[in-house]
Design a protein that fits this description.
There is one protein chain. Helix content is 32%, strand content 17%. By secondary structure, it is an alpha+beta fold. It has 3 domains: 48 residues; 74 residues, SH3 type barrels (Roll), CATH 2.30.30.40; 63 residues, no CATH class. The strands form 3 sheets. A 5-stranded antiparallel beta sheet has the order 8-7-6-3-9, with no helix packed on it. A two-stranded antiparallel sheet has the order 1-2. The protein has a two-stranded antiparallel ribbon with strand order 4-5. Helix 1 packs antiparallel against helix 2 and helix 4 crosses helix 5. The relative contact order is 0.07.
Length: 230
């Protein structure tokens, strides 16, 4: 930079002396020299800017991995899972734990292949793991529902009607029979208005007249079905 300024100064002095000897005006010579110098200064930055600092066309673009420990190349082969609920494992063997399960059409990047196993990076979660190579395909395939599955309607669920046990119905029949008797001594175990046990004074113990239902043995199957159908 300093050399350039020294050069400009020398040119100005030279032009000034030459114009003085020729008898021409100094300002016009100075302007001419200054314009030449300015053009030289303007051309140099433009040429310098036109030169690329480094080549980008051949550079390899790399993507950082999710754990920050490894770089994934953008040109890594793309594969698609070709099975249903395929195990995504932490290592290249069936004894390694399953981290996740992938369905058909899942997009992954093939990092390396080791025998029957391939180390991949999941495009969705960016997690790395191992998957059986036979479940990887170069073309995307998805499982499609069959026409029968599309037209299948949800099955109608039948509402089960609870069945009342016979023992409950027998108790209800006895209770209705006692409620329909006009007096207090319907059954032997009933008590009269004075609080005494009816015993043989009950209508159940006397022949003829009212015949209340006092015991479960008195209830017939026909009586149960008739009560249930009401």
């Amino acid at each position: 930079m300093k050399k350039r300024y020294w050069l400009i100064g020398a040119l100005l002095i030279y032009a000034f002396v030459k114009q003085t000897d020729d008898g021409s005006t100094v300002p016009s010579s100075q302007d001419a020299v200054r314009s030449r110098v300015e053009r030289a200064v303007e051309i140099e930055p433009v040429e310098a800017a036109a030169k690329p600092t480094h080549e980008l066309s051949s550079a390899k673009v790399e993507m950082p991995s999710s754990d920050g420990l490894e770089l994934l190349s953008a040109d890594a082969p793309i594969r698609y899972v070709s099975g249903k609920r395929v195990g995504f494992r932490s290592g290249p063997s069936t004894t390694d734990p399953i981290v996740d399960r992938f369905d058909a059409g899942r997009k992954v990047f093939l990092m390396e292949q080791l025998g029957d196993w391939s180390r991949i990076r999941d495009d969705l979660t960016q997690h790395e793991g191992w998957i059986a190579t036979r479940f990887l395909s170069g073309t995307e395939t998805r499982t499609k529902a069959t026409p029968a599955q599309k037209e299948k309607k949800p099955e109608e669920t039948e509402v089960a009607v609870p069945v009342v046990p016979d023992s409950v119905l027998i108790q209800r029949i006895i209770a209705e029979s006692l409620d329909s008797y006009p007096s207090s001594c319907a059954c032997p175990y009933s008590r009269d208005r004075a609080g005494k046990r009816c015993g043989k004074r009950s209508a159940y113990s006397k022949p003829g007249g009212y015949a209340p239902v006092c015991f479960p043995g008195d209830v017939t199957h026909a009586m149960i079905e008739a009560f249930r159908s009401r």
